[in-house]
Each structure stands twice: as C-alpha cells, then as structure tokens.
Amino acid sequence: MNDQPTILAIDQGTTSTRTILFSAELKILAVQQKELKLHYPRKGWVEQNPETIWQDTLEVCRAILERTAGRAEAVIAIGITNQRETTILWDRNTGKPVYPAIVWQDRRTGTVCERLRAQGFEPMVTARTGLLFDSYFSATKIAWILDNVEGVRARAVRGELAFGTIDCYLLWHLTGGRVHATDVTNAARTLLFNIVEQQWDADLLALFDIPAAILPEVRDNAAGFGMTDPALLGREIPVGGMAGDQHAALIGQRCFRPGMVKSTYGTGCFALMNIGPDFRLSRHRLLTTPAYRLNGKMVYAVEGSIFVAGAAIQWLRDGLEFFQDAAASEALARSVPDSNEVYFVPAFTGLGAPYWRPDVRGMISGLSRDTTRAHIVRAALEAQGYQTLDLMAAIEEDGGHQADVIRVDGGLVANGFMCQFLADMLNRPVEVPKVTEATALGAAILAGLAVGLFARLEATEHYWQRDIIYTPVMTEAERKRLYAGWKTAVQSLLHASGNAAAEPAVSDSRQ
Ligand code: ADP
C-alpha cells in the first residue's frame, strides 16, 4: 500500500496552519495542525509574524511526513491554499520580511479607501478587478508598508523586495527562494490584477503608487510552481496547485458547472457560484472573482458573504450562556414546533448583501411572555436560511444562472436542523459531502491535476461523495409566510435605524 501516490495539501488559514495528506482517491490519510496567533498592535490593526507562518508550515509538513513514514516517499505533489489578501513584503536576498504580515482583517487603510472612493475611482477599479474599495484587499496594505517603513520604497523600486500573499510567500520559501509566483485567484485579491485582461494593471499600480518590480508572476491554479528545496522535506517535491481558500473550497466541492454553488458556514458564511467563462459585473455589490484558471482558460465566480453565521450561535453560547456546546443548539431548536414568531436578525456588524447597511445592529423581534430560550435559538438557526435566501437571490441575478444545488461545508453544517431549514427556505436540495475539508481538498485536486494524477478537473467528480442530502419538505405557503416575516423584521430594523446612506462595505465575516 505504501507506494500508492499521495498529495500533500497545505492549508494556511487565519488562525491555524494545517496540512492534510490525501490518497490518490482524495481520501484523508492524516491531518497535522498548529494554531496561529494574531497580533493587535493598535485599534483596527491586525498583524501576523510571517516567519512564524513559514516555520509552522515547515513544521506541520515535516511532522505529517514523519508520522506517515512509508508514505513520505509517495508524495507526488504539493498544493497550497491560504487565507486571502494578507500582505507580506520581504527581501529577495535574505528572505527577511520588512514588516509583519498585514492581515486581511486589518482596517488601518480604511480612510485611504474612502478617499479613493470619494474621488470616483471605484467603478473603474471594479470593472477591472471585480472588487470594491476596501481595506481587506492587498493594494492599500502594500502602499502603507512602502510609505511607512523607512527605506522600503527605495529598496522596492530597486527591485530588492518581493511582495506576496501567503501562498506566494510560502512558495518562495518552499522552493528555496527560487520561485516568486502566485495564482490568479490570489492575484485577484490584491486590487492590482486585471481579471478581464488577466495581467497586472499598470493604471492600478499607478493609482496605488506601487512599483511593478515587487510583483510575482501569475500562473494557472494547476501549474508547475517549482520543486521544493531538497533540504526542507528530504527530497524535491513538485508544487502543483495553488488557490485562495474560498476558491479552493469551490473546487473541493466540485462546483465545475455554471450555476453550481458552494456555501461555507463557519463564523461567517461565504458563497461562491461558478458562472463560467464570461466575466460579469455585479449589480448588488457582490464580487466577481476567478473561480480557477486551467490551461490559460479562466472560469469566473460570483462571491457573496454573510457577516454573521456561526458567530450568532457562539454569541448565544458565550454571550447569553444559553448552552455550553454549539451542538446543543440543534436539540433546543427541535424542542419547539416553530420559532413562535420570533425573528433573529444577527446584524452584529451591519447587514451585507443585498441591504448594505453596515450602520445597523442586530435585533430579536416578536418576543412575548411565552417566548423561551428554545424559540430564540431556533430563530438564530432559521436566520441562516433567510440570510442565505437573501444572498442567493442576489448571486443568481448577478451570476445569470439558477443555482440548482447548494453544496455546503463548515462547522455549522453539523447542525441537521439548520441544513433542513436551509433546503426548505431555498426550496432546493442542500448537499453535505463526506469530506468536508473542502479547502484542502481543492488544493490537493489542483496539485494532482498538475502532475497528471487526474487527466481533467472533471475526472475528480466521481470521488465526490455525498454524506447527506436535505431535500425541501416545506409547503410553498409556509415558506412564503415565514420569509415574509423575516422581510418585515429586516425592514423594521432598517426603518428604525433611519435611512442614512450607508458606506458600502464588503464582508468582515471571516473574523
Ligand atoms: P471558522 O472556520 O470560521 O472558525 P468553523 O467552520 O470551524 O468556523 O465553524 C465554527 C462555527 O460553527 C462556530 O461559530 C460554531 O458556533 C458553529 N457550530 C459548530 N457546530 C455547530 C452545531 N452543531 N450547531 C450550530 N453551530 C455550530
């Protein structure tokens, strides 16, 4: 058995660095993980230590290969997937970062983004990048480092420094400093990459005052990204796959046809719909982004998010102390026949698509003397269905496709009540896969594709196995009645908060 080929997926997330060893049939053989710290040096600032990220990556890779002794030799390719947008600049000679990694959550460049938006640049930038002006994306973070760390701009202009998101920084180290490259999905989160022309955009570089000399080469998602330095993992291994976390999850969920949707329910929720080879601009302030590019052929996706998903359950657990374990929410919700007209709008950090009201805050409505804890918990879980229906309507309109099936993953999908309600509200089947590690799986698929383990992306479809399918059982009348109640609740919240024009924003659900 030991000579069966395997693939190593590196999944570098915001709070942990993981590696998963997959078999050629895309089954999980082993997992190794290390928690990662975030630093908050000032209000709104979020940083990480790039050297820790690299050392942790190396450590988990070495540990998993040691644990699976015989299989280390069998690793035929490495795939990388990562937290997106987080920005690192480092010295090309020494590999030393010139500043900590500025994490995607960091808001220090918020006012710069507002100024550029007020100056009217957003439509041009959106038409080229599919993104909105927001400090999440890398460009203003790069500019901040260039302008605020002494001597850095001059070194960057002289070509001494390299910029990269986490994927790119890890690849550079894995290849012993030989390869400075990224992939289209990660490049697309910088605000500097034109996803229509598929190249770094000179006008955008000028707008943000960023020298082209620091930029990595942009490759397909399955490509020759170089060989690992033999000193690191005992021998050379090809790095073949790379994609940002949400894109990798779309691939891991095998959403290869236009109209297929994956939705990840963690702290927040991220939904991506495959929209095929044509770029489309969103009319609902959603993002257009590469789903993946293979053999030079781009497939696009529409991306939308819900700020608060599992975070609402966390709040019921830790804030209201309704239960000790999130899983207990399911039995509580099922202990009552309905929410007793209670609606829970979890707008802790504002409302996203399609409302775009970051100024409003959450609300629980419809309380009466006979409201119990169970009704509130049920309403919080039902809110996931309502929010997803709101979002899905916008995604379908922007994407130009009907979503026929929704494939879900993330911590919250362990909750069968939530998944059934989701299927009922969307009036579509909701599928949960056997392997819910969709992100790492996507990276493994891309790596396997690059080294010829799979002939085509579609060849991996038959390894996708469904664990559970939730089919809608609610009557049309009931669905309409419940959803109308949600709409009324949201409208009363918007009304109570005034009609002030809100600043547009994108999701901060991944916090
Ligand atoms: P993240 O990757 O964003 O940290 P996870 O995918 O690990 O999130 O999911 C964790 C979230 O899912 C938490 O917010 C938790 O409250 C919620 N959660 C986990 N299990 C359940 C459950 N059985 N029912 C409801 N919520 C759950």
Word description of this protein:
This protein is α/β, with parallel strands linked by helices and 511 residues long. The chain has a domain at 310-387 and 478-497: Nucleotidyltransferase, domain 5 (2-Layer Sandwich), CATH 3.30.420. It is 34% helix and 21% strand. It contains 17 helices and 22 strands. Strand 20, helix 15 (416-426) and strand 21 (430-433) form a beta-alpha-beta unit. The longest helix is centred in the last third of the chain and has 27 residues, at 373-399. 51% of the residues are buried. Mean pLDDT is 92; it is low at 500-511. It binds adenosine-5'-diphosphate. Adenosine-5'-diphosphate binds next to helix 12 and helix 13.
Number of strand elements: 22
Strands of the biggest beta sheet: in what spatial order? 16-17-15-14-20-21-22
Question: Roughly what is the average pLDDT, rounded to an integer?
Answer: 92
Q: Approximately how much beta-strand content do the residues carry? A: 15-25%
Q: What structural category do the secondary elements indicate? A: alpha/beta
Bound molecules: adenosine-5'-diphosphate
User: Termini distance?
Assistant: 41 Å
- CATH top level class name of the domain at 310-387 and 478-497: Alpha Beta
Q: Major sheet: size, sense and barrel closure?
A: 7 strands, mixed
Instruction: Tell me the radius of gyration.
Output: 23 Å
- Please name the CATH architecture of the domain at 310-387 and 478-497: 2-Layer Sandwich
CATH homologous superfamily caption of the domain at 310-387 and 478-497: ATPase, nucleotide binding domain
Shape: globular
Count of helix runs: 17
Helix content: 25-40%
Stretches where pLDDT falls below 50 for ≥5 residues? Answer: 500-511
